[in-house]
Amino acid sequence: MALVLVADDNERIREVITRVLQRAGHTVIAESDGESAWERVREREPDLVLIDGVMPGTSGFEVCERIHADPATANIPVIVVSGWLPTDSQASCATAMLAKPFMPNELTEQVEQVLNARLHSG
Prior knowledge:
Blueprint: E1 3-7, H1 11-23, E2 27-31, H2 34-44, E3 48-52, H3 60-69, E4 78-82, H4 88-92, E5 96-99, H5 104-121
Parallel strand pairs: 1-2, 1-3, 3-4, 4-5
């Protein structure tokens, strides 16, 4: 399946997302902060990034902007997970948004939708 980078500062949420995605057949790289997530994106070039929009330090929105500003990673889709509504400029960097709290089936459906769109666009 796909290599998915998951970044969330909440360990429990990170573990749940990882478990759900692994059950769906994906390989998951998990990080607890934005800076580590950005490093891993550059090293591994995952098929998809699923990142918490709001984290201490480098936010998921900032990582999203970095991903799309770098020609080497610009085509990697990003699903931003957030418990609040972002501004239009923040949301514009995301391929998709997923609101917290979410059900496991909502997560897998969103991931599959984004991955299928990427597969059929390239």
